[in-house]
Amino acid sequence: MASSTGNTCANRDVFLGIVFALLAAVGFSAKAILVKLAYLDSVDAVTLLALRMVFAAPFFIGVALWIRRQHTEPLNVHDRLLVFGLGLVGYYLSSYLDFLGLQYISAGLERLILFLYPTMTVILSAVLYKRAIGRKVIAAMALCYAGIALVFLHDVGAKEGGVVLGSALVFASTLSYSIYLVGAGHAIARIGALRFTAYAMVVASIACVLQFVVTRPLASLELPLRVYELSIAMAIFSTVLPVFLLSFAIRRIGPGGASLIGSIGPVSTIYMAYMFLHEHVSLLQIVGSALVLCGVLIISLNSKREGR
């Protein structure tokens, strides 16, 4: 009887983990759609990013204060510097470059480029930690970049100018996030995932608001109500909820399982872009997306086996 109850609880945890990972992936994917919709009202990237973080910050501050009560031991200087540096690189800089890039490229191409982060973490780990890259992973990386090339060609043919600049900005955003992932592993192990994430997001929020205060006049906030509604939706459904849902998912099914389920992200972005932005979906885009997804899945599965 006890064994049956234990199995039921384990199955429920796995089911919840899968649901949380799916919701997190769709939430993160929706960000590009909300940004593109906001850009229709001529808001700039700096202002939109600041609004997103202003509305998201109270949640992260609340979690940070709650966690601080649970952990009476304060962070040491080294951990504080890690949180500060990685918060700036992984959340502020990555988000800023991404928002800039979305001014020039489709939501579908943006999500696929962002989805290349496993390939970049493999390369960074190889350079920093002298880890060899196997032939299977090299072949998978070639698949990923071949797929991106196809979707890039689709966008070049469908849009006027700016695709190269936009792709470069989002690629830099992905590289920034990959640096964060490589550096955050040790910090999270010591500080704790929830605590680290809350503190890093507070740092990023402060940086985004400061950038707006320094570079934009207050008159920039005279925007249509729709921009504020989209910013609130972005803060709640594409920032706060996905961050914590992903943490809950990882706790139940592990980082490997969560990352594999996250593969639905680019597919959901392309579908939502078709539904809400009326972005054209071509055969070239479908084939390119499939190549990227296959490549990332191979790398993720290989990383999962190496972890075991």
Set down the secondary structure blueprint:
Elements: H1 2-39, H2 45-70, H3 77-101, H4 107-114, H5 117-129, H6 135-158, H7 163-191, H8 193-215, H9 225-261, H10 264-276, H11 283-307
Helix pairs in contact: 1-4, 1-9, 1-10, 2-3, 2-8, 2-9, 3-7, 3-8, 4-7, 4-10, 5-7, 6-11, 7-8
Round the Cα radius of gyration to an integer and report it: 20 Å
* Unreliable residue stretches: none
What does the average pLDDT come to? 84
* Helical segment count: 11
Order of helices and strands: HHHHHHHHHHH
Query: How many structurally independent domains?
Result: 1
Using DSSP, what is the number of strands? 0
Which structural category fits the helices and strands? mainly alpha
Features:
globular; single chain; 11 helices; mainly alpha; 308 residues
What does this protein look like?
The chain is mainly alpha-helical. α3 (about 75-100) runs antiparallel to α7 (about 165-190) and α3 (about 75-100) crosses α8 (about 195-215). The mean pLDDT is about 85. The two termini are about 30 Å apart. The chain has eleven helices and no strands.
